[in-house]
Design goal:
It is built from 7 helices and 7 strands; from the N terminus they run E-H-E-H-E-H-E-H-E-H-E-H-E-H. The chain is of the alpha/beta class.
Length: about 240
């Protein structure tokens, strides 16, 4: 599949990582890179300003002053994308940009490619409690939403842009969007495949999902409620 690739990076206080993320994505995707869209929620550490000053020719910056949130940032980036393939990931480098070509190559035979920690070859070296909660949540998703996806909370995917003509997700919330996206793509019978990815311990940046136990439990509850709403047809 010959395609031009748009990579969407939501950012908030990612000054320590953003330039490395841009350079590694650009090198990994090479001539197929259409653009890197950075959607920055007016970061207090002025990530947006560093991006402007860097002036990479393939980078488009969307600086949001009046709205915040991961799901809405991704939705804005996807809507703005001009490539025939959309890839998105965190820009904290917890997942490797060098894996993007492997994801995109699978679009020859599939519509959605998910980087998964839970297929053979996938790894997640984070603390036991954090990994345990993730496994429990994904098992819960499988029980209520069905097989076909093992990592419902991946957050790293390559998707044919045309899929978004049919599949959408709520702009509210945090990582729940990925559960909703994966479920709706599966429900609409798009061809989905998961490829193994190795998660690494993040450096720098701000993450709601790797916070203290109280935050993790609150997010787990939010994710669980979203799953039930999807399963029983309640609008998120």
């Amino acid at each position: 599949m010959k395609s031009d690739v748009s990579v969407v990076l939501p950012s908030y206080n990612e000054r320590e990582n953003i330039i490395e993320a841009i350079d590694r994505i650009s090198a990994a995707v090479g001539s197929r890179l259409k653009e890197i869209i950075i959607v920055d929620d007016n970061s207090p550490d002025e990530t947006w300003k560093l991006v402007e000053e860097y002036g990479h020719p393939k980078v488009r910056l969307i600086r949001r002053v009046n709205e915040k949130g991961l799901a809405s940032a991704l939705d804005d980036g996807i809507r703005a994308a001009k490539g025939s393939v959309v890839v998105w990931m965190d820009c904290d480098l917890g997942l490797s940009p060098e894996e993007i070509p492997a994801l995109v190559s699978k679009l020859d035979d599939h519509d959605v490619v998910i980087a998964s920690r839970y297929v053979k070859g996938g790894k997640d070296p984070r603390p036991f409690f954090r990994v345990g909660l993730s496994v429990i949540l994904n098992t819960y998703c499988i029980l209520f939403l069905g097989w076909g996806v093992r990592d419902y909370t991946s957050g790293f995917a390559a998707v044919k842009k045309e899929v978004f003509d049919t599949v959408s997700f709520s702009r509210r919330g945090f990582g729940e969007y990925f559960i909703e996206f994966a479920y709706r793509a599966k429900k609409n019978k798009f061809k989905i495949v998961e490829v193994p990815c190795a998660y690494s311990i993040r450096s720098g940046g701000v993450s709601k999902s790797d916070g203290d136990i109280k935050t993790l439990l609150r997010l787990g509850k939010d994710y669980g409620v979203r799953v039930l709403k999807l399963r029983f047809g309640v609008q998120p």
